[in-house]
């Protein structure tokens, strides 16, 4: 069993109280049954998360909207499992949605997983969104250093020359300087 799935199932089993409904959702191979959980009213969050995760990992695009909502949840384990499933979903809307979440200043406290997802996706939207998010984090006394650090590291992973100016600006921030040096070193020099 994949580590992310094991972690998710243990967490949701506890959250659900290990009910028969949980056991049924964990075992079913019927994608239509899982998709119904996403649209039926009154379903608990744990059931929606489990159904969305399983559908997303199976490549069933009916899970897209639920996974995007979970990617922007206040609970980091829900965000992490949604990001994991979204990388496997292979839906062309994913990068655009992750970029919108990563650059939304009203939800920046929850942008860590969308930023990491953008790096994993390596989509055309990834570098511009990470640059925008990082530039905003370079303001004095910004409280979202983890998001800023994820942007710096992600831009180093993506190694796109467009990131060079914002990474140079990040060198002036002690909490980001070392990571910025490493990120800049990964970007090939233009000739």
Explain how this protein is built.
This is Adenylosuccinate lyase. Keywords: Lyase. GO terms for molecular function: lyase activity. It is an enzyme of class 4 (lyase). It comes from Streptomyces asoensis. The N and C termini lie far apart (47 Å). The protein has helices spanning 3-16, 20-27, 31-39, 45-57, 64-71, 76-89, 94-102, 112-121, 126-137, 145-158, 164-170, 174-186. It has 2 domains: 1-91, Alpha Horseshoe (Leucine-rich Repeat Variant), CATH 1.25.10; 93-191. Helix 4 crosses helix 5, helix 5 (64-71) runs antiparallel to helix 6 and helix 8 runs antiparallel to helix 9 (126-137). The chain has 12 helices and no strands. The relative contact order is 0.08. It is elongated, with a radius of gyration of 18 Å. With 191 residues, it is mostly helical. The model has no long low-confidence stretch (mean pLDDT 94).
């Amino acid at each position: 069993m994949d580590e992310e799935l094991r972690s998710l199932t243990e967490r949701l089993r506890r959250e659900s109280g290990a009910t028969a409904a949980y056991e049924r959702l964990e075992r079913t191979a019927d994608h239509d049954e899982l998709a119904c959980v996403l649209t039926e009213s009154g379903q608990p969050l744990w059931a929606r998360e489990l159904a969305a995760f399983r559908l997303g990992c199976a490549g069933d695009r009916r899970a897209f909207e639920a996974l995007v909502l979970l990617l922007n949840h206040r609970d980091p384990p829900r965000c992490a499992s949604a990001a994991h499933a979204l990388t496997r979903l292979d839906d062309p809307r994913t990068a655009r949605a992750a970029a919108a979440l990563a650059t939304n200043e009203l939800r920046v406290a929850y942008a860590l997983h969308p930023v990491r997802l953008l790096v994993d996706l390596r989509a055309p939207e990834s570098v511009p969104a990470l640059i925008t998010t990082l530039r905003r984090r370079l303001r004095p006394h910004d409280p979202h250093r983890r998001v800023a650090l994820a942007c710096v590291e992600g831009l180093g992973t993506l190694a796109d020359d467009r990131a060079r100016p914002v990474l140079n600006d990040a060198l002036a921030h002690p909490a980001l300087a070392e990571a910025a040096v490493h990120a800049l070193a990964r970007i090939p020099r233009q000739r």
